[in-house]
Specification:
The longest helix has 19 residues. The chain is mainly β. It has an 18-stranded mixed beta sheet that branches. Strands 3-6-22-24-28-31-34-37-40-43 form a ten-stranded parallel beta sheet, sandwiched between helices. Strands 7, 8, 9, 12, 15 and 18 form a six-stranded mixed beta sheet that branches. The chain folds into two domains: about 290 residues; about 120 residues, no CATH class. It starts with a helix and ends with a strand. It has five helices and 43 strands. It is globular and about 60 Å long.
């Protein structure tokens, strides 16, 4: 049926109700081990064992040798900056009254006039006086504005314009819009071959501090804005392959890579009740020829950043009751390119999350390569989520603009069983709504009782086997209800067309 104003208002209300529910979830009080407290007015020389003897910094939390069963509680209403290296068996959560504790990846609020100096007065370009990690974007004010990040290629020992590589990248010439940024880092380069080519490229690492340039037509940005947060190239929570890690009721924002990152094979990673926003966009790496531009042999620049990521095997991976928004890549993901080693991803549940303005609301893939099989995604459930406006957020300043989807499985082997996607609301996508493709159609998820809301003549998406050819990208037209039922095999779906 066609979506009336009343129907769209009902969807808006459902999203508001879920958001309010997530932001007001109560804190857990059951802990099996020692409980440590962290507050903005604490002291790292304290023992941390009571609110009055709380620690102060995330660095203290990262360095402490916890025991399994311990908990770390951050005080509500406080702001903490930096990142946390987790330990196995530890719960990271909140205490007190008020808003969820805010853990920011940015090192400081850059809204200070003394932090900026004029670089080009004619073009209103300012330079940050202090070195900074590469950042995905800058966010201004109360998340009201964000910058456009300029991404030149790097070839033959210099930055060059990405689309015209014969042209040197000149900051004053290329920063043409208000709030454009450019992050310059080439202090350390590597000569290792990249995609068959052998030329130096910037060697980005966790200590790769460079220069930040910002065009601000209104004057010194530190005086113009009340806050400027940089999405710095680091993680907030680095889980690695630690087991039995719980992250609950925290607000994680302003981070250039992943808000929560794990890899290897992780068991029992549980994330619930969290607010996760403004994530990603930092440069993962420069490399050789960009496969997206084979005709131009342009130097590749890969940006990345997910809300919650597992890269590798997993068992008992749960993300539920989270509000996730404005992420450069995926709100939630499990993914792996196997590189010849079998990988098992088991018992995955994404339940009752509100995900908005991410390029991919939920992403998964299992790329079985190098001739080794035996990998499997097993018992994966994606249910009762509200997924909205995929590809309409800030992350869509990417060059590959035709990739967004609410469910993004790409087109790999994606071997799976007991995989279901049901009772979700898929509310508008800038491109595909659904991209679930596998070598065998039996590995595609069972779809049922989902709601689809999409603009007329926009893509519905792709579903099915890629053994012989890519499945057809079906259009969301007047026959969308039939396409959902027959192509996606979604039983009892609700389908609303926006004219």
């Amino acid at each position: 049926m066609f979506a009336t104003k009343e129907i769209l208002a009902q969807i808006d209300e459902k999203a508001r109700e879920l958001k309010d529910e997530i932001l007001s979830l109560p804190d857990s009080e059951n802990f099996s081990g020692a409980v440590y407290y962290v507050s903005a007015d604490g002291d790292d020389d304290n023992d941390g064992l009571s609110p009055k003897r709380a620690w102060k910094t995330l660095a203290k939390v990262s360095s402490f040798d916890f025991c399994e069963g311990d908990a770390v509680r951050f005080r509500r209403g406080d702001v903490f900056r930096g990142c946390v290296k987790t330990r196995s068996g530890v719960k990271y959560c909140a205490f007190g009254e008020g808003e969820k504790p805010k853990l920011y990846g940015s090192e400081k609020n850059l809204a200070d006039p003394d932090l900026w100096e004029i670089y080009d007065s004619e073009k209103n370009i300012w330079k940050l006086r202090e070195p900074i990690l590469d950042c995905g974007t800058l966010v201004f004010g109360d998340d009201e504005l964000h910058s456009r990040k300029l991404i030149p290629s790097y070839r033959d020992g210099k930055f060059v314009c990405r689309y015209v590589e014969e042209k040197d990248f000149v900051i004053s010439d290329e920063m043409t819009r208000d709030l454009d940024i450019f992050c310059k880092y080439d202090a350390k380069t590597t000569q290792k071959p990249s995609k068959g080519e052998d030329f130096p490229i910037p060697d980005l690492g966790w200590d790769a501090y460079g220069e930040l340039y910002l065009r601000c037509d209104a004057g010194n940005p530190g005086a113009v804005f009340s806050s400027i947060e940089a999405l710095s190239r680091r993680h907030i929570f680095f889980v690695g392959s630690n087991h039995n890690v719980t992250i609950e009721n925290l607000c994680l924002k302003y981070i250039g890579t992943h808000a929560i990152s794990s890899g290897g094979h992780v068991v029992s990673l549980h994330v619930s009740g969290c607010e996760i926003g403004w994530v990603g966009g930092a440069i993962q790496h420069y490399s050789g020829t960009d496969p997206n531009y084979p005709e131009g042999r342009r130097g590749s620049v890969t940006r990345y950043g997910n809300g919650v990521e597992v890269y590798g095997g997993c068992d008992d991976y749960v993300v539920k009751n989270c509000y996730i928004y404005q992420v450069y890549d995926a709100g939630i993901t499990h993914q792996k390119t196997t590189n010849g080693v079998p990988v098992q991803m088991k018992n995955i549940k994404y339940l009752r999350n509100l995900i908005e303005y991410c390029v991919y609301s939920i992403e998964y893939f299992l790329d079985e390569n190098m001739g080794v099989d035996g990998s499997m995604v097993e018992n994966c459930e994606i249910a009762e989520n509200i997924l909205r406006f995929s590809g309409f957020g800030w992350g869509q300043q990417r060059h590959n603009i035709h990739t967004p989807a609410h469910i993004k499985g790409w087109s790999y082997t994606n071997t799976a069983r007991d995989f279901s996607i049901h009772n979700n609301i898929f509310d508008r996508a800038a491109y595909r709504m659904i991209h679930t493709v596998a070598l065998e159609e039996s590995s595609c998820p069972e779809m049922y009782e989902n709601t689809y809301i999409q603009n007329l003549s926009s893509p519905l998406g792709q579903y099915g086997s890629n053994r012989d050819a890519e499945p057809h990208n079906v259009v969301f037209d007047e026959n969308a209800e039939k396409a959902v039922a027959e192509y996606l095999k979604d039983r009892d779906a609700r389908v609303y067309i926006i004219k």
